[in-house]
Amino acid sequence: MAKSVDEFNKKRLRSSNITVVISIALVLFLLGLMGLILINAQKYSDYIKEQLVVNAYFDQNYDAKDSVKIAKLEEETFKKVQTLAPVKKATYISRDMAAKEAKKTMGIDSDALFEENIFPSSIEVALKPEYVDPAKIDGAIKIIQSVPGIVDVKNDSTLMVDVYNNLSRILKWILGFSILFLILAVVLINNSIRLKIFSKRFIIKTMQLVGAKRRFILKPFIVEAIVLGAIGSVIGLLALFGVWYYFTSQIGSAFVQDNNQYFWLVILVLGVGIFISVLSTIFATWRFLKSNVDDLYYS
Q: What are the backbone dihedrals phi and psi of residue 155, each rounded to the nearest 5 degrees, phi first?
């Protein structure tokens, strides 16, 4: 009879542990998924911002005999622009290149409409994502204009502001959902741990009544919480990166290539899983340690 009771208790304990691990894995899978979406959304947002360029134009009022000298000055100016703090990437566009691009845009194959090369040479500047901010774009343009040799800087400020505001709005929504999933992770993991500890409330109180100190009682529960939290986190991460690998292989893009960000995401998910499990275990166990024996039947 005693043997059957022990087997029943062991099966119930295994079932309880499996339930807690699965709960932790599922919740952290969703939390990690939101983290991956947030990382890639931020990277994609930066990529789009880098496609918003400003054009810095050179002075074209010079004699043809000075063309060699002017070309050298433009080269020096181009190198200076490349070193500016707001500049992510700079591309030099000569007068010939500008003329070819204009003809291509207008669908003209001959030079019949152009008596001379009327298009100025320029530098196409892609700003760093943080300088696309409407509050900083004017300052970035002034810095570019201050470079000797640059006479004018043009940009479609309305388009930049609209794109920046839309991207910022999207990122805020994604961040909001990520925070919501973090709260849900705390609540759901906490409830799973509390149910597990609840099933052991009589064991906890019995240990206390026979003289065991609170630290002694807490220790095995904390160790178990660390193990269960780690196992649940690992399972959740394996499922997460398995799904993400399948998704990226299907669309043919790996999205973010920075493994450092994925590393910190793994650390975050592991940390959240273990931390919440341990914290919930401490609070749930401490509750029964402070309760009376009669309260255990009504908790």
A: -155, 155
Query: Residue 232 to residues 30, 151, 189, 239, 273: CA-CA distances in angstroms?
Result: 13, 61, 10, 11, 7
Reported as a single tens digit per residue, the pLDDT across 130-160 is: 887 777 888 888 888 888 888 888 876 566 6
Q: Looking at the structure, give the CATH architecture of the domain made up of residues 52-156.
A: 2-Layer Sandwich (3.30)
Query: Which tokens in the block code for residue 129?
Result: 């994502």
Q: What is the rounded CA–CA span in Å between residue 20 and residue 192?
A: 6
Backbone angles phi, psi at 90, to 5 degrees: -130, 140
Closest CA to 150 of 76, 53, 67: 76
Closest CA to 160 of 86, 83, 92: 86
Two tokens, residue 17: 């542990």
Specify whether the backbone of 294 is left (phi greater than 0), alpha (psi in -120 to 50) or beta: alpha
pLDDT per residue over 178-198, tens digit each? Answer: 788 778 878 887 887 877 777
Domain boundaries, the chain: 1-47+164-290, 52-156
